[in-house]
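Dear colleague,

Following up on Tuesday's group meeting, I ran the structure prediction for the two-component complex that the binding team flagged. I've pasted the input sequences exactly as they went in, so you can double-check that nothing got truncated or mislabelled along the way. The structure tokens for the whole assembly follow below. Feel free to forward this to whoever is handling the docking comparison.

Inputs:
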Amino acid sequence: MTEDQLYSAILEKGTMLCVGLDPDYSRIPECVRRGRSVSEALVEFGRRIVDATSPRCVAYKPNLAFYEAYGLDGMKALDLTVGYIRDNCPGQFLIADAKRGDIGNTARMYARSLFETFDFDAVTVSPYMGTETVLPFLDYKGKFAIVVALSSNPSSADFQTAVKDGKPLYRVVMEKMMEISTPGNMMFVVGATKAAKLKEIRSFCPDNFFLVPGVGAQGGSDREVIANGSNAKGGLLVNSSRAVLYASSGEDFAQAAASVAGATARYPLLP
Amino acid sequence: MTEDQLYSAILEKGTMLCVGLDPDYSRIPECVRRGRSVSEALVEFGRRIVDATSPRCVAYKPNLAFYEAYGLDGMKALDLTVGYIRDNCPGQFLIADAKRGDIGNTARMYARSLFETFDFDAVTVSPYMGTETVLPFLDYKGKFAIVVALSSNPSSADFQTAVKDGKPLYRVVMEKMMEISTPGNMMFVVGATKAAKLKEIRSFCPDNFFLVPGVGAQGGSDREVIANGSNAKGGLLVNSSRAVLYASSGEDFAQAAASVAGATARYPLLP
């Protein structure tokens, strides 16, 4: 999928929403768990959420940890969930939230896993080990590396604000990564809870898409993110996970998820 | 496994060697591949390497990417390999080389996956997103987070030498991580190709174990690493992957692996 196709989907659906699939079994509604094994419940919950939200979002972001936690059955559930989205929701942008980041020959194996064995469009990458960690992902046409630049969690400032050549680390990371890539194969994670910084970051990175976590459960404002972070070609995927998935714990959970999704990250902004 | 038990194993076997299991199917000897599926070959290759090297090493480090690349069958092969080591090589320290690193609720899921579903003793963690990424791993008694501080790859200097409070990032990472942990639940990855730096790093981190990649195929010297990096309780795991695994591509591959393993990371150093 190209970034132009992604922008078309944003315009067509009127939203920049990416729904994060972090299915914590203990929070899956009782009506879904009843009579099902853990992995069956993960798959069924994913299907019901996807059916309800697909007209209201342009991307899904399964968080691999939440599937790996349940071992081989969990990985099978991930495989079925990805397959279900591919078969039933053409045009959705599929992100593996995996935060992989390792040396070249290992990164090549992760790329093979996530782009070939699983058919993801993009994978999140942790940049600590350098530009080498990203190169193998860039070789796939129509696929993206999404490098963590500035995250939205409380301890993000521990290391991401170290300085090199007079610039904060998150900027050094983005500039180095831009040198080896194009907006057609590289996006960045930029935390929404730092919305004030989005404008500044746009000034040195005008063209790439940003994946913005931290709205909803983590407290960021989707309107503020869109006002400060969007560009002429959209340029944003605004992620919400828990606020959508667990909007209700009752029988109406899918309807509630659809309702929250429909009210999140609308684009263009209405007055 | 405690760090004292690990030190006892080092003294008993006379080695600090950790064998990295990075089984690239295309490099597995023909005699192992013949008549076997990919995942069967991964498992059989792992068994033969483990049988040959277990008396000559104190740890194994499966690299998860090399199993994930083959999808669900690959993960099953990982499960069987870990199980084989647990059943046949009591006392081996088992490291999941996964470079996981994500926010708290996600890290908790990775910890569950690697410490409960799989029974690893330790997991490598990428620190970019802050101390929060590590906390859930520290809650498991007798298990370790192994945080990447200074890696051995060519692009490690892209970001790891940024400066905060007058110190290089790898030092900031280590000092922050030491504040929230003990040598009983925290180790660090310190690249062997920077052996000159090992002494300096020991000066501010005297007690923790270091996992040192980069000897063998990547060119670091195991003797130099041990001379500069060991401490009064051993304090080192010296990793070799490709140099051991692919010591020979013939029928004698296991014997060749044993021979390379036996000559690597001997401890204490002989004159």
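Chain B touches chain A through 56 residues (CB under 8 Å).

Cheers,
M.
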